[in-house]
From TrEMBL:
Keywords: Signal
Pfam families: Peripla_BP_2
Transmembrane segments: none
Domain (Fe/B12 periplasmic-binding): residue spans on this chain: 35-287
Name of the protein described by the UniProt record: Iron complex transport system substrate-binding protein
Keyword tRNA-binding annotated: no
NCBIfam families, alphabetized: TroA_like
Organism, as annotated: Halomonas campaniensis
Length: 287
């Protein structure tokens, strides 16, 4: 019933397949996955990109892309899974989120014999690699390779286009309470750099550090970029308008990027990166 490969020494099925997850563990299936549970919105997007969308039988809350994902049964949210509902759907592969899903619940699924492939892409290269590995487990390698190649080529084209761009100091707000940003090791920091931006908080140690509002005022970035509590909510940017002395405010360089396009490590990061690069070009034109 379960897809976990348990071959005898020296034995291997012709259609078995293995992939290394982002914990560094090898996950092997006896045959391509047919019933996949995606335990984060990002995992859902990556599976569809990998050509395995028609095999996804379970998702979690906020799995809103592609639209077809809305028709798939939800088994709770990423922070608290309904394991009874999940198990009733009889998945043969679970795609988990390393720092998003409860460790004890993922471990319980493994104890029950389910293969759990844990993902957490940390950079642009990791997105393409995740697509290819999921495609391998699902037996949709051709579509996965095409999607990964298109993503890599699109990012490379953006990087080439902005390679000689004049630097622009940037503050990216990833959350409002507590106030949070990203450092240069985060994929958003990588996108800022790709677009010719200089992350005002890029040298901080944590991937998504908490900062004080006073730190932003002291950094006085030329551009402020933010997502928000929704795909069209610009309230976070409106907050900074209270500080007309900020360079970004004085130049009207307050830009909104829909969070699902930039804060999920999925192929749509390419679209988000394009919007971010456009924002920095606008800022350069306002000097």
């Amino acid at each position: 019933m379960l897809g976990l490969a348990l071959p005898l020494p020296g034995e291997a099925r012709a259609d078995s397949r293995c992939a290394i997850d982002d914990r560094g563990r090898e996950v092997c299936l006896e045959q391509p996955a047919e019933r996949i549970a995606a335990l984060s919105p990002g995992a859902t997007e990556l599976l569809f990109a990998a050509g395995a969308g028609d095999r996804v039988v379970a998702v979690v809350a906020h799995s809103d892309y592609p639209p077809e994902a809305g028709e798939i049964p939800s088994v709770g949210n990423h922070a608290r899974l309904d394991l009874e509902a999940l198990l009733a759907l009889d998945p043969d592969l679970v795609v988990g989120w390393i720092t998003g899903n409860p460790v004890e619940q993922l471990e319980r699924l493994e104890r029950l014999g389910l293969p759990v492939f844990q993902l957490e892409p940390r950079d642009i290269a990791g997105v393409a690699g995740a697509i290819e590995r999921l495609a391998s487990l699902a037996g949709s390698e051709r579509q996965g390779r095409r999607a990964a190649l298109a993503f890599r080529e699109g990012m490379a084209e953006l990087a080439e286009r902005h390679a000689e761009a004049e630097p622009v100091s940037v503050f990216y707000q990833v959350w409002d309470s507590p106030l949070m940003t990203v450092n240069d090791a985060h994929w958003i920091g990588e996108v800022v750099r790709l677009c010719g931006g200089v992350n005002a908080f890029g040298d901080l140690d944590r991937l998504a550090p908490r900062i004080a509002e006073e730190a932003v005022l002291a950094a006085d970035p030329e551009v402020i970029l933010a997502g928000g509590m929704g795909e069209a909510n610009r309230d976070w940017l409106a907050h900074w308008s209270r500080y007309p002395e900020l360079t970004a405010v004085a130049a009207d360089n307050l830009f909104f990027v829909p969070p699902s396009l930039i804060q999920r490590p999925t192929p749509r990061l390419l679209e988000g990166a394009g919007l971010l690069c456009e924002a920095l070009e606008v800022a350069r034109g306002r000097r």
